[in-house]
Amino acid sequence: MSIAVYVPDHLLFGLLHEAIVRADHGCERHETEASLLKALAHGNIELVLLDLSWDNEERENLFEWMRLRRGERIPVLALSAGIRHETAAFTLNAGADDFLEIPFDQQELVARMHALMRRCHRNGARRQLIVGGFVLDNQDNSMKFRDTPIILTSREFAMAWLLFSNPGKFIPRDTIGKAVWGRGGDIAGRTIEQHIYKLRKKLILGKEPLVMLRTSYRQGYRLELCHEG
After folding, report:
1. For residue 118, how many C-alpha atoms fall within 13 Å in the half-sphere facing its CB?
2. What single DSSP character describes residue 221?
3. What is the pLDDT of residues 107-133, one digit of tens each?
4. pTM here?
5. 128-225 architecture in CATH?
6. Which phi and psi angles does 46 have, rounded to 5°?
7. Cα–Cα dist 22/111, whole Å
């Protein structure tokens, strides 16, 4: 288990790395949003630290990711310089679990990290997702419908986890590309469509479809349940 750190600034990362290692935790640095989303889809992350001081497109994409993480139990501690009340409120409403101003005291940082991880452990880390009779287990990338196993590749599972975490909501192609492949716009739409096609076939276990994977050219893909399980 390790702490994922999305911090473009080298000096700030050095301070965070020092505090994290001193507190006996592993530390993974991610300099891009795509790298972070790929680690969350495939890695073993117990906490995410996000630097939101930068006003750029990647920050807006991170806000969108936080809105999509409904039901996810990996806590997020957001960091920002020059904090304003409206910035903190917007970030927390977007899905962050706590907010800390830069510069920070390292002891306070570690205390906030531990408080978030304790809360996550007490509530039970989100290792399983149960939707409409489907059970997805993030520990071993397994999926089943009731007692019937559904064999998925690692990318198919990452795609299924994202879609089943947000039933009824369109997931943009760029978000899927970053979460599954670690890249966004340079993943051909045909590649994503091929994986969606294979996933659709594997989710048909009888004569009637259990779910529908809707496609919208402008909006992406949406999971719709055909029954309540």
Report:
1. 6
2. E
3. 889 988 988 888 766 554 556 788 888
4. 0.57
5. Orthogonal Bundle (1.10)
6. -110, -15
7. 13
Pair of tokens at residue 65 = 């990711």
Measure the CA dihedral 48/94/90/75, to 10°: -30
Per domain, the residue ranges of the chain are 2-123, 128-225
Whole-number Å distance between alpha carbons of 46 and 39: 11
In whole angstroms, give the CA distance from residue 131 to residue 165. Answer: 8
CA-wise closest residue to 47 among 111, 102, 2, 96: 2
Residue 187 φ/ψ, nearest 5 degrees:
-85, 120
The two structure tokens encoding residue 221: 């893909």
Q: What one-letter code names the amino acid at 78?
A: A
pLDDT tens column, 141-195 = 889 988 889 999 888 888 888 888 888 888 888 878 877 776 555 566 788 889 9
CB 28 within 8 A of CB 5: yes
Paired tokens of 40: 């969350």
Q: Which two tokens stand for residue 138?
A: 């993030």
CATH (one of 1.10.486.10, 3.90.1150.10, 3.40.50.2300, 3.40.50.720) for 2-123 = 3.40.50.2300
